[in-house]
Amino acid sequence: MTKATKLLTALPQPQRERLMSLAREVSFPEDTRIFESGGTADRFWVIRSGAVSLDQQVTTAQRVTVATLGAGDMLGWSWLFPPYLWDFGAEAFSPVRAYEFEAQPVRELCDEDAQLGLTLIRTVAEILAHRLEMTRTKLMEQYAVRRRSAL
């Protein structure tokens, strides 16, 4: 598996500075639900410190952690693609500090600066491909464990 792409380091310095002009610092205490699958995706974060678990609801009673994100990782990609609804849930696994970006101003910045927009979309696509592969692997592992225990 390839190393995960980091959003801020993937952007050239001038584009990174333009994006960071829209950031605000936030924090989440441990065990805080940051967002739920199906909720409105109107922002995203770049984690500065701590860890966040991405999860998928597989039954009404069970969530499966599909990835754990840490410093430098982007949290949330659904803000970029209509209908702007979260595909996963996220919870602070430890105290988290992050840069938060409101989606609408970032999308407007991408419209104004086509090169930044293209770079951002390519970077998010790389992150998305990596996360989907991690999710597939985790769900297959869960399926294999359940199948073995049922035999």
From TrEMBL:
GO molecular function per UniProt: DNA-binding transcription factor activity
- Extract the InterPro entries matched here: cNMP-bd_dom (IPR000595), cNMP-bd_dom_sf (IPR018490), Env_Response_Regulators (IPR050397), RmlC-like_jellyroll (IPR014710)
- Pfam families referenced in this protein's UniProt entry, alphabetically: cNMP_binding
Please list the residue ranges annotated as the Cyclic nucleotide-binding domain.
7-76
* Cellular component GO terms held in the UniProt record: cytosol
Q: Which domain of life is it from?
A: Bacteria
Q: What is this protein called?
A: Cyclic nucleotide-binding domain-containing protein
What organism, scientifically named, is this protein from? Streptomyces adustus
Q: What is the lineage of its organism?
A: Bacteria, Bacillati, Actinomycetota, Actinomycetes, Kitasatosporales
